[in-house]
Amino acid sequence: MAPVPVNLCIGAGQSLSDPLLLPGGSFVSVMVTHTTENGRQTELRIWGVDDGSETTLDFGAALAPGRGLSGGMHTWRADGREVLACTSDGRIVRMSRDEPGRPVSDALGLPHGPVWSGPRYSRDGRRAAVIGDMRTLFVYDIDAAGWAVSHEADDGFLVDPAWHHDRATCHAWDRPEMAWTSSSIPGVENMPGTSVQQPRSSPGFEAFGWVSDGNGVANVVIEADGIVGERTVIDDECEHGGPTWGPGQRTWCFSPDATKVAYTRNESGFGSLWVYDRLTGERTQVARAVHGCLSWEGDRICALRSGARTPDQVVVYDVADLSSPSRVFARHFADASWSAEHDQHLVEPAIATADGVPYRLYEPTVPAEGLIVWVHGGPTDQWQVTWRPRFSYWLSRGWSIAVPDPRGSTGHGRAFMLELEGTWGAADADDTAAVARAVQGRTGIDHARTVLMGGSAGGLAVLSAANRHENLAACVVAAYPVVDLALLLESDDPFEGHYNAILVGDVSVSPNMDVRHLRDVPVLLFHGSNDLLVVPEHSFRLRDSVTAAGGSVQVEIMEGEGHGFRDPHNVRCEIEMAQTFIGERTGRIS
Questions:
Q1: What is the pLDDT of residues 258-272, one digit of tens each?
Q2: Best label site of 39, 69, 380, 440, fewest CB within 10 Å?
Q3: Is the dihedral of CA 326, 340, 30, 80 positive or negative?
Q4: Please, what's the largest Cα pairwise distance for the chain?
Q5: Of 177, 174, 130, nearest to 156 (Cα)?
Q6: Residue pair 522/475 in contact by the 8 Å Cβ criterion
Q7: How far lies 186's CA from each of 2, 196, 582, in Å?
Q8: Is 459 helix (H, G, I), strand (E, B) or coil?
Q9: 349-585: CATH class
């Protein structure tokens, strides 16, 4: 029987974020986002680790979800009787469970309207540190129902509040830096030219640590304390955290007694979960796959887990005996269109390099029809080996997929990430071309059956690659791509607009300024009508330049969409139009 191609029904499933083990470790709370008649809605559910029970807490308001493998949207008091959660309308709501079966919720008396994140209780549970609008660190006195500003960014950003003993601090950086170039933990750690992230205290507040790339790789650092009398770096060739694009990343945590640390490793895009013993220095692997949102209570570690063959799931591991850790709980979501009959299309990628450029190659279980070279956005980012239904969609139709990590990508150390500065649109394009050529040689798939794909910064990489390298691909498909670097330098985006000037060197490498080879390569562009980060004018300028040179660029505007498409109808239209376009240009219609 022929394999059944995967179809996508984007938005039908649930998404999970920000899991936390409740004190005691018998229950886990999770932000669950699902589709309703009024759009996507997030609520907080509690699952019993041992009995599988499920309860939904009603805060009387829609909650704010975490982002991907990050969280930072809710927290529990040490006794487990009270929880704080951020709402989507700009409040922080407290729910007390002092009377079992009769939870009572109310909003903290903080300013209404900011985007709140990262609430953290103090040691005594009477205060909460919280970030508003990524600019201000507030400390709220729960008993007195009053608040004070603890720290404010003059010209920068704050995320992830933490308590350093009895003082509130956070992760901070100032323009023109980004979190991954130079950042600090006010009052604790400030080394210019070093990136830090994820400040965190132990459950009992006797230990404190963070992730730092001071040794060239983002590794966990633990402050000297009464347990270990000197600062410790879990020195590793692998990164223990990703770039800070928003609040709530939790790729490491302390054990309840602070004698151990759970942490993740990024192994060339693959992931694993480990435990480090602070007393002995011993390291133990707990599980494979990419993990995030770590928490540790009792003998249990909770995480959000994802892999090439595993839909995102909340898992709990029993680590009472580290010689034989075991998984005792798992809850997952999968798109309603997904079923066991598609499992044959779930494949693990192979790791390789091309002229020093790392990449991962997914090969279909059916005869290969062609090759897609697919570049991540960012550009400071990486696509780890996680659940990607879009990959399965194309794999099931006979397409191999190469995922390059061009210069500027994370996952390979600080130096590799910084190599893109001043060369954006050139170095990443040449790296993408190197991977395309290498995979074409490896698989025997020629350029006439090769497609370049990318979104945002990845769109710039693939458009520039096709423009700088002749006969590289049959066509290019890009979503909300960066095209005109001079136009991008005019961006007033508050989060990263200033960083563009560091990345951009020669604006003449913009693919719309010299269409020497793009005029011979058909291009399909998708852009949101409301995209404020990379405005639609980028796509229009490329269309005008290529058309004037005798080439072909098709621009599809997605009404109401911003930078990234959310409406399930628009996502389906994007995929269907891309498939038709690619089929007509390569002769591979499936």
A1: 999 999 999 999 999
A2: 39
A3: negative
A4: 73
A5: 174
A6: yes
A7: 60, 11, 51
A8: helix
A9: alpha beta
Tell me, rounded to whole angstroms, the distance of Cα 573 from its chain centroid.
24
Q: What digits encode the pLDDT tens for the residues 11-49?
A: 456 788 999 999 999 999 999 887 777 777 889 999 999
Distance CA 123, CA 64 (A): 25
Please tell me whether the peptide bond between 379 and the residue prior to it is cis, using omega within 30 degrees of 0: yes
* C-alpha span between 31 and 163 (Å, rounded): 24
Give the C-alpha separation, 453 to 372, whole Å.
7
Second-level CATH architecture of 33-109+166-332: 6 Propeller (2.120)
Joined tokens for residue 65: 């979800």
Instruction: Measure Cα distances from 372 to 359, 519, 559 in Å.
Output: 13, 20, 27
Torsion of CA 532, 534, 539, 542, to 10 degrees: 140
User: Which pair of structure tokens corresponds to residue 4?
Assistant: 């059944």
Q: Provide the pLDDT for residue 1.
A: 42
Length of the chain in terms of residues written: 590
CB contact set of 2 (below 8 Å; sequence gap of 6+)? none
Residue located via tokens 């490793």: 265
3-state secondary structure of 543: helix
**CB neighbourhood size of 277 (10 A):** 14
Which sequence spans correspond to the domains of the chain?
33-109+166-332, 349-585
pLDDT at position 310 is: 87
Distance CA 469, CA 222 (A): 47
What are the φ and ψ backbone dihedral angles of 570, each rounded to 5 degrees?
Answer: -65, -35
Peptide bond into 311 cis (omega under 30): no
C-alpha dist (Å) from residue 41 to 33, 204, 381, 516: 5, 34, 27, 47
Which amino acid type is present at position 420?
A: L
The amino acid at 231: R
Kindly report the CA angle at 227 between 23 and 249, in degrees rounded to 5?
50
> What's the pLDDT band for 91 if we cut at 50, 70, 90?
very high
User: In this model, does residue 169 exceed pLDDT 90?
Assistant: yes
